[in-house]
Specification:
Number of strands: 0
Radius of gyration: 15 Å
Number of helices: 5
Order of helices and strands: HHHHH
Low-confidence stretches: none
Largest sheet: none
Strand content: under 5%
Helix content: over 70%
Length: 80
């Protein structure tokens, strides 16, 4: 990464800032839920209901309770 220097940072500055502000305080379990919810949203489409997407998250990650899957899907929606 060092070889890219400042131009690499400048290219991704907004994305780095977003991640550091919105996600840096989350733990591994929270990030897993969000990443899975994001995956489901991208694969299934944003037009699917929160309930449908949360059920899909739970199917992919059975250890994630449905209420936490719903929270993750809603958080992904909030983040844009």
């Amino acid at each position: 990464m060092l070889c890219y220097g400042i131009s690499y940072y400048q290219k991704y500055q907004q994305q780095i800032k977003f991640i550091s502000e919105k996600l840096s305080r989350l733990g591994v379990a929270q990030l897993e839920r969000l990443a899975t919810a994001f995956y489901v949203t991208m694969e299934e489409g944003r037009e699917q209901t929160v309930s449908y997407q949360a059920t899909r998250v739970h199917e992919l990650k059975p250890h994630v309770p449905l209420n936490q899957a719903i929270d993750a899907v809603q958080k992904v929606d909030e983040l844009g």
